[in-house]
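Predicting holo structure, FE3-S4 cluster bound.
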Amino acid sequence: MMKVTNNIISPAGHISDLLPDQNKPRVYIETYGCQMNVADSEIVLSILVENGYSVSHDPKQADIILINTCSIRQKAEQKVFKRLDVFSRIRKNNPGILVGVIGCMAERHKEQLVNNFQVVDLVIGPDAYRKLPDLIKEAGTGQKAVNVLLSHEETYADISPVRMDKNRVSAFISIMRGCNNMCTYCVVPYTRGRERSLDPKIILREVDNLTRLGYKEVTLIGQNVDSYRWKPKEKDIEISFSGLLEKVAEAVPEMRIRFSTSHPKDLPDKVLSVMSRYNNICKHIHLPLQSGSSRILGLMYRGYTREWYIERIKAIKKTLPGCSISTDIITGFCSETEEEHKETLSLMEWAGFDFAYMFKYSERPGTKAAKKLNDDVPEEVKSRRLTEIIELQNKLSQRAKTKDINRVYEVLVEGISKKSENDLFGRTSQNKVVVFPGKNYKPGDIVKVRINDCTSATLLGEPV
Ligand code: SAH
Ligand code: SF4
Ligand code: F3S
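Done. Tokens:
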């Protein structure tokens, strides 16, 4: 299936092309957390397939189960601990199965996983995936195998991922790893280490692989894409994110390009102007606000104020009229007052976000906030504030969608609607989901659709 050319595994293809092979050990991977983890699972699979493994879609049929984990909030970790119980039961009936915990929880819970979970044979952090084949062999001898070393260099640049998306329409490319910001609430710098960017040549190689595999959309991902930087040699000119975006947009004019996440402190006008110049760069920006209060933003070490964020939104609206904006909000951060909560609500209302991910603050042991600040907003207050935030966002999303009625959008079809076999679903450039009747179209097609109605989460329309 895979060809190795000049030590580059290329192109690895799609998981559904990998035929079941009884003669090879079978690996089953389950992925939690953000897009970075999804992209990492695709790298892991590529490494294993290259080393003689085949794929299983059922943990009960597998020889090795890997669970790629997330630590961002306590709930994310609890989910994984519950899954380990399930795998433990599976293993009772199939004692030969090996179970590995990989990803962000491996960094944080190495000792607990090794000492308290009999079912766990391997614990492997995000920068040690190349060692997987050796570590699996080690675990096969009955020893627990562990490697959670973080690296300043590892980017898996030479490894072309095995794509695992459902529809073969849209894929991710990790353009950087790690994070150098130290938001006081966040575990990512501890679980993923220092920031590293990928060579633009490698990114363009992957974009090219995707076009050859028939993909129509690519999302460039990183924890803070605006700090992407590539400078191979001292005398070379540095390439920033806006430069990379432009290169990708030019290389594949037929492909849609998205990116995530933009950091409000770093989002430059240059990125906005590149977006405005290329039709194939989607008009959507995910710009996590976290809080509308400058005092809370200061305690979070976010590096911007309420006023700065407002100015960035104004710049987006000026340069990119019609661009959608989504956000992340954390409610109930240490010492947040009722007034400060209201500042978040008023800023949300002013910005009119199209979409938001909204969370209660979850203290993460080891972070600056856990060490220096008091998680003193009572649980019931966090819950009530979260409800208010969600209710407001529902209203804003509804308002934004109502404005779309009677507009015509180009929709990239991703698949058949979950609710009705006769309907397709896809996304607009603004990342809004559209459902429409479409027997004559297939995933990957771009269809002009007139919007005639909406539900809370979806636009409904008819092809024109
Ligand atoms: N790098 C991105 C965010 C990655 S984590 C950025 O800086 O915007 C995704 C989101 O999870 C964050 O934006 C934040 O809203 C939320 N989050 C992170 N840590 C959290 C915590 N301890 N409690 C609650 N939500 C958290
Ligand atoms: Fe976490 Fe902040 Fe880095 Fe985002 S920018 S991953 S919130 S430390
Ligand atoms: Fe979770 Fe790690 Fe991503 S903590 S959000 S999987 S970087």
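Residues 72-73, 185-186, 223-224, 261, 263, 288, 290, 328, 330, 359, 361-362, 364 surround S-adenosyl-L-homocysteine (ligand 1) (CB under 6 Å).
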